[in-house]
Amino acid sequence: MTAIEKLEILKNNLRKLSNLTVAFSGGVDSTFLLKVAQDVLNEKVLAVTVNAFIHTNKEIKESIEYANKINVKHIVLNINDINIKEFIDNVPERCYFCKKDIFTKIIKVSNENNIINIADGSNVDDLSDFRPGMRALKELGIISPLKEAGLTKQEIRDLSKMLNIPTWNKPSFACLASRIPYNHKITQQKLNMIEKSEEFICGLGFKQFRVRHHGEIARIELKQDEILKFLESGLSNKVCEYLKSLGFNYVTIDLLGYRTGSMNEIL
Q1: Which of 136, 111, 134, 116 is CA-nearest to residue 20?
Q2: Fewer CB within 10 Å: N-end or C-end of the chain?
Q3: pTM of the entire structure?
Q4: How many CB atoms lie within 10 A of CB 111?
């Protein structure tokens, strides 16, 4: 089945809904879903962006800008603290507890706006990784229209490009907590160090990468074809100096390169 055919399935499924709240992070998947949903359901769509300490300021800013651009009703849900023991302790099921808490709050916002359907941007590729948060979504009755239409991440990018959605080539992102090894406590200080580190490296021209927080060690994952550029251009010295100023004692490059879900490799 082609991506175009899957897009038609997505549209047909969305037409069956009376209204829809889209959990809108500003990433590739949720931006695509929001745009298609708005095209199909018009003013019956609400975008809800969660602003919590596990998200970057850049993500929130870009979400607000795009929602304003397409003139969709948009609510930024500010969550000042995620006070969940399992999340703070960073157990392997962390994402389950976090998603359950956040989407319970999104459900409340949707109810206040008389919207009964709530969707996230999960796609078919998410089924291949360890995603305990998907169990929370199922328990809460959250729908995943992209996954139900059989769309992969690459197909979503291709369709986004076809539809002139600006995020078609946006680097994949995940919450900042995913940069910390399981069973190592999540703290605001660690998340700030990660956010500032990645902002700095992004400013040097790198797009798809991660900075993993291993206590006093920062482990940088770069795309394989960018590792030599990083090492030979003299940028590595700048990065080491800046990351050490943030509190890291050692800065390393992962020779396996960037890969999603690398923290799940120990499970």
Answers
A1: 116
A2: C
A3: 0.89
A4: 12
